[in-house]
Amino acid sequence: MTASVLTGVLLICCTSCTVRDAAEGRASGTVAEHRDDGAPESESASTDRVERLRVKVLDVLPHDPQAFTQGLEMAGDTLYEGTGLVGRSSVRAGPPGGRPTARVVMPAPLFGEGITVLGRTLWQLTWQNGIAFERDATTLEEVRRVPYPDEGWGVCHQRSRNRLVTSDGSSRLTFRHPKTLVKTGGIDVTENGRPVAKLNELECVGDAVYANVLFTERILRIDLATGAVRASIDATGLLRKNERVNGSVLNGVAAVPGTNQFLITGKLWPKMFRVVFVPRDGLTH
């Protein structure tokens, strides 16, 4: 990356992070009290023990070091990735660690965010552009645009409930209709009874959602029935210090279908890691 490009990236990153922090600060003052069905969350749900896990690396794969990763998801053998930054936002698809077989670049002023795949459809959010894109999951070409008045951050598809789960950088997850993106409910996320803000990229697995916490190397497993954090996953140390640049934060978690493995990467990371989550104490990676 040239110095001029990197400077531009850093200016945009700092601006977007500042605006996001302001938005998150407004939202994080709300303490979780109710589930989306209107029933009070049980006291025991917020005080259950949080499992402490860490990553164990199984393989290291190459990753585009100029990809400002916003969304990562596998469908079958195909890895889909959405990237951000104005003028550099894209969505791409291909084998994990390989060259993309399909790629679409989004023109300015669009700022790409999270993605998720539903059969033949791929949804791609935008950060503050007020729209979301429905794309063909094979060609990635645009099918239509729908209004999305909220900030777009992460999105995933909970198949068991046939609904989308979305984040906006606060401690709240919003449920949406998978075809219209209209809100159908939501839930506040708590860890030991306290709200957890800066929820970002999402990966739905069964009745849980994995969410990375922005500006940290922590991934949470959240119970979508109660909003309670059930596991906190330590992903520190994946990149060496000399592999980092400003803005290269963890942001990309994709479950590998049919396994207990995950792919993890981040914004401007030169590597992607195939990992499993294991008990933290006494284990190294």
Automatic annotation (TrEMBL):
InterPro entries, alphabetized: QCT (IPR007788), Quino_amine_DH_bsu (IPR011044)
GO MF terms held by the record: glutaminyl-peptide cyclotransferase activity
Annotated region described as Disordered, given as residue ranges: 28-48
Keyword terms: Transferase
Pfam families named in the record: Glu_cyclase_2
Protein name: Glutaminyl-peptide cyclotransferase
Native species: Streptomyces dysideae
